[in-house]
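I trust your eye. Have a critical look at both lines of this record:
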Amino acid sequence: MLLYARKPREEWGSCWRCVAFAKSPLDVVENDALTPSMIWESMRDFVIGRAEPGTLAGTVTVTSNTAFGNLSGEPHAGCEIRVSWTPLDGTGLGATMDAGTQVNSWAAFIQSTVGPQEEHDVE
């Protein structure tokens, strides 16, 4: 989502703010103490070149669930990432705010989290 305020917001440092959310399953073995940092750093690699320095902020939540009763089955894990950043807005040399570029950087990160379909089809 791309937010716009008519007057620059002090906490954004701009009139513009990008806000994004993603939720995805994880292999249960990926649910460890290092996972949130690894996911954050991976996302940062895709977004940081499009953001004003120092404005990237967010959370990574990793969950593990075990179902019981009628919902019983294999344990499963998931990941949620919430992030926001102030996009480059034309104040620096060659830095122009381009909504499509912002969306594409987030989409590229999401695509990077999805393994090849063949990995998911193995029985």
In short: The chain has three helices and four strands. The two ends are 37 Å apart (CA to CA). Helices lie at 35-47, 99-112, 117-121. The first strand starts at residue 2 and ends at 9.
